[in-house]
């Protein structure tokens, strides 16, 4: 089996690269913009056909949520058009696409965990382009698995955990939004799950994956600082209204993970346990 992983320099792609184990039965191709421009249909098709790719895992995306509000063109090419090109190319091979999406496809106005078939209503350019990418991918390749996730962090790249750690060392008081509720997702756990999905056999459709439990960004930041043993910084709750941003954030974006647990038989760690693992890895690096 030949597996192409795009966006290999991002958080999820880096975790997949760290966890994937090549064998006589499995070969991985890790690419980012320098190796493969996924917004170039001809280049995508040529790469997939020449390397006889069986599975594409698309980790590449435009994820600068606020910047996307004024950068529709590039955001649409990366989040909507590129998944279509990948899906069309792998469909010709009779292969599978695993496409990573987001909780931002929902408006966040509910109060119950969102199931896969819940009505979508993205409020941002980022959310709209990611939803369009889901649809284009599933239309172009009948063996597409969409995995929606949220609040992603890891030991790689820039993310909320690493930002809070840096600011907590610089400031005595740190204000964090307390009225947006969701679930942090350790990219390493998501990477393991994607590899399990491939190993256990693809079942096309939409699935949700985050860690277990729920919290606010304030709760998340509080846990990061306390688990890291940073006593000098006090975390204070803020309201979204006091912290305006170009892109509107969903107030409640907890994802229901019943389907992925039942279909693939996976166990999911609580977000606090995964956070501790991430912090341990950061401290030991």
Write the topology of this structure.
Layout: E1 2-6, H1 11-19, E2 27-31, H2 41-50, E3 55-58, H3 65-68, H4 72-92, E4 96-102, H5 125-140, E5 144-149, E6 152-153, H6 160-170, E7 173-177, E8 181-182, E9 185-186, H7 187-200, E10 205-208, E11 215-216, H8 217-227, E12 234-238, H9 258-264, H10 271-284
Parallel strand pairs: 1-2, 1-3, 3-4, 4-5, 5-10, 6-9, 7-12
Antiparallel strand pairs: 8-11
Helix pairs in contact: 1-7, 2-4, 4-5
Structure notes:
The protein is of the alpha/beta class and 285 residues long. The chain has a single domain (2-158, 183-212, 253-269), classed as NAD(P)-binding Rossmann-like Domain (Rossmann fold), CATH 3.40.50.720. Helix content is 41%, strand content 17%. It has ten helices and twelve strands. The protein has helices spanning 11-19, 41-50, 65-68, 72-92, 125-140, 160-170, 187-200, 217-227, 258-264, 271-284; strands spanning 2-6, 27-31, 55-58, 96-102, 144-149, 152-153, 173-177, 181-182, 185-186, 205-208, 215-216, 234-238. The strands form four sheets. A six-stranded parallel beta sheet has the order 2-1-3-4-5-10, sandwiched between helices. Helix 1 packs across helix 7. The longest helix has 21 residues, at 72-92. The radius of gyration is 19 Å and the shape is globular. The relative contact order is 0.16. The model has no long low-confidence stretch (mean pLDDT 96).
């Amino acid at each position: 089996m030949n597996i192409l992983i795009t966006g290999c320099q991002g958080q999820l792609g880096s975790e997949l690269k760290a966890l994937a184990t090549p064998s006589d039965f499995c070969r991985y191709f890790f690419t980012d913009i320098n190796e493969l421009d996924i917004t170039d249909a001809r280049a995508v098709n040529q790469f997939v056909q020449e390397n006889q790719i069986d599975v594409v895992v698309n980790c590449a995306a435009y994820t600068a949520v606020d910047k996307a509000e004024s950068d529709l063109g590039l955001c649409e090419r990366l989040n909507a058009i590129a998944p279509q090109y990948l899906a069309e190319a792998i469909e010709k091979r009779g292969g599978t696409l695993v496409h990573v999406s987001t909780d931002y496809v929902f408006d966040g106005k509910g109060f119950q965990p969102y199931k896969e078939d819940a009505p979508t209503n993205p409020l941002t350019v980022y959310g709209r382009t990611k939803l369009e990418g889901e649809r284009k991918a599933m239309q172009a390749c009948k063996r597409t698995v969409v995995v929606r996730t949220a609040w992603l962090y890891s030991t790689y790249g820039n993310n909320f955990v690493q930002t809070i750690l840096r600011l907590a060392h610089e400031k005595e008081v740190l204000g964090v939004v307390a009225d947006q509720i969701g679930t942090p997702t350790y990219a390493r756990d998501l990477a393991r799950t994607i590899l399990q999905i491939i190993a256990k056999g693809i079942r096309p459709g939409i699935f949700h994956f985050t860690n277990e439990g729920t919290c606010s960004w304030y709760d998340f930041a509080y846990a990061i600082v306390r688990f890291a043993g940073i006593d000098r910084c006090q975390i204070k709750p803020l309201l979204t209204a006091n912290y305006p941003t170009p892109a509107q954030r969903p107030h409640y974006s907890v994802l229901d993970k019943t389907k992925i647990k039942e279909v693939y038989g996976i166990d999911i760690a609580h977000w606090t346990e995964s956070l501790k693992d991430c912090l341990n890895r950061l401290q030991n690096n």
